[in-house]
Amino acid sequence: MRNAEFKARLLEPDDIRRAITRIAHEIIERNKGAQNLAIVGVHTRGIPLAARIAQKIVELEGVKVPSGKLDITLYRDDLSEVGLQPIVRQTEVPFDISSRRIVMVDDVFYTGRTARAGLDALIDLGRPSSIQLAVLIDRGHRELPIRADYVGKNIPTSRQELVKVKLLETDGEDAVELYELRGEVLG
Amino acid sequence: MKIEIKNARLADDSSRDIRIKNGVIVTTLSGEADVTIDGSRYLVSPALIDPHVHLRVPGQEEKETLETGLSAAVAGGFGSIVCMPNTSPAIDHPELVQKLIRDAEALGLARLFPSAALTVGRNGKHLSDAAALQKAGAVMLTDDGGTNEDAGVLRLALEYAHALGLVVSVHAEDASLRGDGVMNESATSERLGLPGNPVAAEAARIARDLEICALTGSRLHIQHLSSARGLALVRDAKARGLPVTCEVAPHHLTLTDTMLESERFYCDPVLKVAPPLRSATDCAALLEGLRDGTVDCIGTDHAPHTAAEKQHDMKIAPFGIANIEITFPLLYTRFVETGKLELSRLIELMTTGSAKILGWKPPSLEVGSVADISLFDLQSTKTVDSKQFKTKARFDSPWQSEPLRGWAVCTIVRGKIVFDAR
Amino acid sequence: MKHLLDFQAWSKGSLENILETAKVMADVLERPVKKVPALQGYTICTAFFENSTRTRLSFELAARRMSADVITFNSATSSTAKGESLQDTIATLEQMKIDCFIVRHEASGAAHSVNKFSKAKIINAGDGRRAHPTQALLDAYTLLQRFGSLEGLEVAIVGDVRHSRVARSNAELLPKLGAKVRLCAPATLLPKELEGDGVSTTTSLEEAVSGADAVMALRLQLERMNTGYIPSLEEYRSLYQINAKTIQLAKETAIVMHPGPMNRDLEIEGELADSSKSVILEQVKNGVPVRMAVLYHLLVGKG
């Protein structure tokens, strides 16, 4: 992380739990059940979120929802995101996505470029009947005409800020924190 | 032209005034000198003599011409040079020798003494007309570049030349051991996957040629000796009293094969020379040879090529390095300044030593001697820049940007200033 | 990293990262759409001053699978035959806005020298006898696929080591990744100077193959016999051929490799090359994802 100063804790573990539960409900409602549904998380924190949503849907509907992992590195259009050594992770979608309703899950929804890359990556895997987008945090500042279908929490931010989602599976705790970026901020 | 060098500082640290008139060193000038030089600021020496230069004329004027080559020579402090006959055609005919001398005289730069081919067309088979070539002005016989594979022919050539009082010099490498080697055979060559040319190729050939020298009792000069092993053979032969002499080139004293693995010169053909650059141990042994007298003289083996040719890869780029303009400052800075070699010995190696090879009397600054004189600036530092060379071969130099002292500042040949950078 | 000329400047971590990425690239190649936009807008030039259709095709396919534009320069059909220097050729090509040159040349160090006069990224696709790094990477990848890790693997490389860039690159790469390399050849084709950390040499095939996890046969150029390096093909075959009998000295799980093209029934027995022990076709297949990974890392990485 670039030089950043902690500003505030935005969500507590219970907030995150409730947000996921609500998203799961909305997904079931929108899709009239969980039939033919699959959840795909975007690396890194979209993956545990996707798993939690899938688990919640099983609890609510008693239907097993397949879930997968999507790495969008090879589809990025903003290579400024890539470091000295690009890390490309495996995409694991162990089911045929054709004719399925796919819910793509990411942690923070910002410019929309990750979602755009995710859409391209998914479409290269097959022809889903629909793709919906679920995010834990929508912080605004879209650069592409893309919107999320399911949002855990809207958090208006400035471009000088950074939203950090922490999850038990990847960071050892559940939390959403806000930081102020210092020094040069890349457009 | 009348020249006076006041308080000329000599290699032995003594100083004296030198006066030049009508091409000769004289006691007094009648009247004013045309040029007066403050010799106290410079080292003053008989002009350097290079027994081994490639001038590429005739036939390869894209690499060097008489004018560029001889300009480079005087810029390096050389007043006389011996050019090699591996030209196109080879210098194996008296008329070619005469024409070279005539054309060089017309330029009035350094004195040019052609060596002539030992065998017709340098084919290593039929002896050239040595007597006629000598009469035309050739001072040495050699098939340099060619390796005289036929020992029987070399034997006859040595005997024949010796009777004429002509020295034969050899490029001592066994062609079959050398193979297609483009660098010294070593761990470096194996790592780089470049065909290697082993020290044994040189040592085996020197051993053979020394036996022929012993057999015939004829004068033999070994060119551009590159290895400790080769040097040891010559040292033994000299101890046995054989009439053998040898020369060492500046690159074999200052560059090593491992440089081909360095970032700067990775597989770079500017370091491709024949014989190849060897190890640091060989460099040290050659330096010892300069000190103990095993080595008789420095031969630059100045071997110009076009930049384009030297930009090719290690496999197809030609062998050779352009060094005549920096040989004295290079050896002075690397060895004399560091206390590894006496200044008087370096001067000896580049004047008296070379003269001895050719059977000339030692050059001198005494009254009555020909006025071939060089002045060197031992104080000022200048960095090597091949782009500024007078030679046509301005390709990247292995010594590029090296700060050196001892640059020639003035060269006088036949009593005339032919190079002046004061 | 800026270039892949050899492995000198490469850390174990970067090399492992490339091999990890190659796995992802291999997945891409199994999909219905065998293509990603990762290198869209990049222009890659395969500059081959020595013929090698297989390597060139592998690189070009790798580049195209990532949506790069590819142009091809073959000196056989172009101007180097007329004496244009490598420098002039590259300078000319570079005017066409090339992001990456993939250079194949018969002289050691050619790829390094391109680096001196080009701003583009450079991948060495084989220079003289010196290096062929992507071949070694695909060999490492193939070993990784089979064994999960290279740590402690014993790899015998048998054949014309002296003239082999594949042997040199593997001897440089595999020990970095934890494997041990045994180079084996007749004495005339075995430079002892290649010995080093994790690299041993032997003239005994038995010694080289005994207990090995992998045995790689190198192509024997038939001209080696004419130039006197080996007395006869028969003698070479009887002493150094990798066949059903000699492979028995290796571990039971041992695999047989060959960088291609093979002289069947000379350095390797044809039947063994076609057997289940052989991974020779996998090596060819793995060339594409490995080269995709290399291209991606060089072009997209900021090193």
Detailed description of the structure:
The complex is a heterotrimer of chains A (187), B (422) and C (303). Chain A is an alpha/beta fold and 187 residues long. Chain A has a single domain (12-80, 88-159), classed as Rossmann fold. In chain A, 27% of the residues lie in helices and 29% in strands. Chain A has 4 helices and 8 strands, in the order E-H-E-H-E-E-H-E-E-E-H-E. Chain A has helices at 13-30, 46-61, 113-125, 168-171; strands at residues 4-11, 37-42, 67-70, 101-109, 130-138, 150-154, 161-166, 175-181. In chain A, strands 3-2-4-5-6 form a 5-stranded parallel sheet, sandwiched between helices. In chain A, helix 3 links the parallel strand 4 (101-109) and strand 5. The longest helix of chain A has 18 residues, at 13-30. The two termini of chain A are 16 Å apart. The mean pLDDT of chain A is 92. Chain B has 422 residues and is an alpha/beta fold. Chain B has one domain: Metal-dependent hydrolases (TIM Barrel, Alpha-Beta Barrel), CATH 3.20.20.140. Chain B has helices at 66-75, 94-107, 130-136, 151-164, 175-178, 187-192, 199-216, 228-239, 250-254, 280-292, 307-310, 327-336, 343-350, 352-357, and strands at 2-9, 15-21, 24-26, 35-38, 43-46, 48-53, 78-83, 111-117, 140-142, 167-170, 183-184, 196-197, 220-222, 244-248, 297-298, 373-377, 382-383, 403-404, 407-413, 416-420. In chain B, strand 9, helix 4 (151-164) and strand 10 form a beta-alpha-beta unit. In chain B, helix 2 packs parallel to helix 3. Chain B is globular, with a radius of gyration of 20 Å. Chain B starts with a strand and ends with a strand. The model of chain B has no long low-confidence stretch (mean pLDDT 96). Chain C has 303 residues and is of the alpha/beta class. In chain C, the strands form 2 sheets. In chain C, strands 1-5-4-2-3 form a 5-stranded parallel sheet, with helices on both faces. Chain C has a 5-stranded parallel sheet with strand order 8-7-6-9-10. Chains in contact: A-C, B-C.
SSE blueprint and pairings:
The complex is a heterotrimer of chains A (187), B (422) and C (303).
Chain A: E1 4-11, H1 13-30, E2 37-42, H2 46-61, E3 67-70, E4 101-109, H3 113-125, E5 130-138, E6 150-154, E7 161-166, H4 168-171, E8 175-181
Parallel strand pairs in A: 2-3, 2-4, 4-5, 5-6
Antiparallel strand pairs in A: 1-8, 7-8
Helix pairs in contact in A: 1-2
Chain B: E1 2-9, E2 15-21, E3 24-26, E4 35-38, E5 43-46, E6 48-53, H1 66-75, E7 78-83, H2 94-107, E8 111-117, H3 130-136, E9 140-142, H4 151-164, E10 167-170, H5 175-178, E11 183-184, H6 187-192, E12 196-197, H7 199-216, E13 220-222, H8 228-239, E14 244-248, H9 250-254, H10 280-292, E15 297-298, H11 307-310, H12 327-336, H13 343-350, H14 352-357, E16 373-377, E17 382-383, E18 403-404, E19 407-413, E20 416-420
Parallel strand pairs in B: 1-4, 6-7, 7-8, 8-9, 9-10, 10-13, 11-12, 13-14, 14-15
Antiparallel strand pairs in B: 1-2, 2-3, 5-16, 16-19, 17-18, 19-20
Helix pairs in contact in B: 2-3, 4-7, 7-8, 8-10
Chain C: E1 3-4, H1 12-28, E2 43-48, H2 53-65, E3 69-74, H3 86-94, E4 100-105, H4 110-117, E5 121-127, H5 133-147, E6 154-158, H6 165-176, E7 180-184, E8 199-202, H7 205-209, E9 214-217, H8 223-226, H9 233-240, E10 255-257, H10 270-273, H11 280-300
Parallel strand pairs in C: 1-5, 2-3, 2-4, 4-5, 6-7, 6-9, 7-8, 9-10
Helix pairs in contact in C: 1-11, 2-11, 3-4, 5-6, 5-11
